[in-house]
Amino acid sequence: MIRRASRIAALGALAAALGGCAIVGEDYERPDLALPETHAVALAPEEARTAANTAWFELYDDPELRPLIEEALDGNLDLQQAFARIEEVRARLLVARSGFFPRIDGTLSTGAQPQPNSNDGVFTLGLVLGWEVDLFGKIRRQNEAARAQLLASEASRAAIVTTIVQQVAATWLTIRELQAEEAILARNIALQEEALELVELLHRQGVVSDSEVQQATAQLAGTRSLLPQVVQARLVAENLLTVLLGRYPSEIDLAPFDPERQARGIGAYPLPTGVPSDLLARRPDVIAAEQQLAAATALEGVAIANRFPFPTIGLSSLVGRTSTEIGSLFDDGASSSLNSWGPEVRLPILNFGRDLGNVRVARAQLEQALIGYRRAVQGALFDVNAAVYAYRAGEAQIEPLADQLAAARRTLFLQDLRFRGGVVSYISVLDAQRLVLSSELSLARARLQRDLAFVDLYRALGGGWSDEDLAQAARGGDAIGP
What is the pTM of this model? Predict the structure, then answer.
């Protein structure tokens, strides 16, 4: 008994010593991409974080928009699929972690055991214990890969959340802008109808020519033709919104349009016009790409460990009973006990290039992951710059377009007075009407483009994911983000 205990202790010490051997493969280190310090224009990191660190429910604190975003996050099918994917990867991590521990299996077998005067079968019932010592770190690399894949899945879920918030906000803003266009067109159609009635009356009195009547008629028809296009665009946007909410495409019941009401929250925070490079690391898609790169790095180590003639060392044990009759397995007089254990060494000799091929596959996948990470960072830089430029352009247009609209309305008022005074023909009034309509539509669309650019920049910055969320992701927390 003492000898057996000493053998077990010695074997355990050997396993511990072997477990401390060098780990095959490279440890993951973030690639140096030589990023510029800032993008667009220089800006202090604190200013950029003002918008990026703001949770979506604070940024879009609108009594109508906020419930829509909440419903989308609760019912969106892409997000539900992402949660299911996280559960799958979490289970894979559990499988990988099990490699550190012994495995116990039950066994029941039968076989012939020839004897001098008989050929009776032998039944064996027992427990088989096996444990592979992680000699060169293969199991540790498998766990590193599984953990990185879990973090990548969490980050992908966060990216979907950010995208859903952006899409719902953008679609809702688009619907409201199209409703504004409908109101503008309806108002102008009503004014042009009144004007046409007046021109027709004046034509019957011989004051205006038939050409002026025809031009007024044509202008009214053209304005009317714009309305169905805008209505169709609004219905398409409403259909898209229902899908984003996780519903089947259908009409959506929104509050009546109020032309005086502006969406709360949009543009309420300082907008970064330049973004520090380190801030881009907060983007969930960049985090996911980096974790996929870390997983590919670890899996290369697994492939190397499987290729080279590293011995697989473990412990195996069988405890049970054997008998010539299955019903006598627990009868001490008719059965005998089994108790065997000892070290186990397996050494790969020949597999006709299979393991070499697996190493090449792992290295090719690692190269793909590196390219994917670089592309994700590059895309993040592009998204931020494009959104900043779009916001600047939209913001820069609003004041001139507002001035243009004010001037156009003043021109229409004056031309109408001059027409009534007999100074100009009605053609001048029609020209002024067209300018007013065009200016109103242009101003509404410029405001939409500015707001959409702000929403897109919030997404491009990885908005809504605080520094604490990112730290939790780096530590491997169960979830990141709201």
Answer: 0.73
